[in-house]
Amino acid sequence: MILSRSKPANAVQSSGNYGKLPQNKKGIPDLEDFIEKRDYTGALTLLEFLQNTTNEPNVWFDIWSGYCAFHLGDYKRALEIYESLQDAKVENKAALTDLDINRAVCYFYLGMYNESQEIAKSTKESPLKNRIIFHLAHKLGDEATLMDRHQNLMDIAEDQLSLASIHYLRAHYQEAIDIYKKLLLENRNQLALNVYVALCYYKLDYYDVSQEVLSVYLNQHSNSTIAINLKACNLFRLYNGKTAENELKNIATDQHTFGHDLVKHNLVIFRNGESALKVLPGLVGVVGEARLNLVAHRLRNGEPKESLELLGNLEPAVPLEYILKGVVHAALGQEIDSEEHIKIAQQCLHLVGSSASECDTIPGRQCMASSYFLYGQFEEVLVYLNSIKSFFVNDDTFNYNYGQAKCATGYYKEAEESLLMVQDETIKNTFTYAVCLCRCHIMNKHSQLAWEICQKFAGTPEYFNLLQIVGNDSYRMGEFLVAARTFHMLDRLEPNPEFWEGMRGACAGVVQAVAAGRETPTALREMLHLLRSTPHAQADSIIRVIINWADDMHFNVLD
Question: Tens of pLDDT along 115-154?
């Protein structure tokens, strides 16, 4: 909106001699040269030099200093200059015609929307006033004023850029692209429009297209902070964080520059959350995505309660916000077993997945799959995950969820393959992953692998529950040796008649399997060892029967 202006509103036009600045001495560059090259630091330096070398007080020094400070992103300094002019005794009142609306713009960029609105409303009607109130209405959630000011927008570049920016902020990216492309057709020299188009394509996940469009601008303005930052973001999506970070090395400095806060924010993302708790809190309310990324960081570190607190009373307005809210409530609901949180998560995710703008996107299908996952409708989950599987071949989280859904629907072979592809040790150490993989191993006649997983959980709170699941599944599938081991271990941990009955039945099953040739006599030896270590009186009689039968079959079962 404001940054599309190349000169301050009406300031220069009121003068026939470049804002009535004094003529420069021979050899000193003109201010106009710096402005055209967008060298605002150089322009400020020149203004300070001229102000110190002339004895004539000139209001234009301050007006242009405010303009340059604004375009450097130093909105606070620009505001201070404009406010000092408001209180100063200036003979040339015509030079201050747009002082108040410029102050309103500065307040807007500082995030002080109420102050900006108060000043803007008191100024005379103008296209700039209409635009600033249009944007303020969006920021303050005033739909009535937004629509009213929308009707006042004209078919001029500045107004159309404002309309496109509101479309962008509301995630209507294609509508914004249409406006930008129309403006580009009318004036190919407005190269900055390519940056806006590229940004929309980035939001639509077309990173290659975004990069191609962006290169048109970067070929002419290779030092643009916004363009370099967007290129880095594309590289992050296409390759990795290190490649993206290398792209920012020329602008990621500690000095104040336009977009510096955005660069600091993105470096945290490119470095996989490094220094997130140090950097992101200070950027909340400054960079739009800072709070959301801080929530995501907390969530990745297993802190759903803290994530929900950070979200506060956020009323989602765009898909990303709905997704994050849904994921936070899902994580917290599963952690504390809360149906209320799960229901909120289902609603948020289903809303995104079923929306016309997102239903055919990868995130949209992920949302719909997640929604059905929470409902326990795993056949529907697979419909959506199968449609995007090719995009997540080596993604641990996808393979984990896909394996769970396959396991829940009885496709144990595919589930086992998917779960074994997971490399993330954090996932592999979870109880749910262990349960699913153990069940798949057992159903695919790999029960020994399930037993080995159980042993890895020995000494953990989940060990007892995992043994129960493996024991029951093994018994049901005729994997009686593993069933005997698990029921024997369960009986040792917590003596219970049911566990002893399970072990007895499993022992009978082992004998039957040996007789049928499905197990070797070695299984009888292990089973006898298990029986001898139980405290139950019936064990001795069972041992004698098995030994006698083994002798009749000429099996050597004695150690």
Answer: 999 999 999 999 999 999 999 999 998 999 999 999 999 9
SS3 69: helix
504-511: long-range contacts at Cβ-Cβ below 8 A with a sequence spacing of 24 or more? Answer: 504/538, 504/542, 505/475, 506/474, 506/475, 506/480, 506/481, 507/480, 507/531, 507/542, 507/546, 508/480, 509/475, 509/478, 509/480, 509/483, 509/484, 510/480, 510/481, 510/484, 511/546, 511/549
State the residue for tokens 């005379």. 124
**Over the stretch 35-72, which tens digit does the pLDDT of each residue have?**
888 889 899 999 988 888 876 667 888 889 999 999 98
3-state secondary structure 204-239: CCCHHHHHHHHHHHHCCCCCCHHHHHHHHHHHHHHC
- Size of the chain, expressed as the number of residues it contains: 559
Residue 26 has pLDDT above 60, yes or no: no
Q: Around 251, how many Cα atoms within 13 Å sit in the side-chain half-sphere?
A: 26
Whole-angstrom CA distances from 223 to 32, 39, 228, 247 are 19, 11, 7, 11
SS3 state of residue 44: helix
Paired with 287 in beta bridges are 284
Identify the residue whose tokens are 């929604």. 371
Residue 492, Cβ neighbours under 10 Å: how many? 12
Of 325, 285, 243, 226, whose CA–CA distance to 4 is shortest? 226
Q: Tell me the whole-structure pTM to 2 decimals.
A: 0.71
Secondary structure of residue 287 in the 3-state scheme: strand
- The CA-based angle 429-431-435, given to 5 degrees, is 115
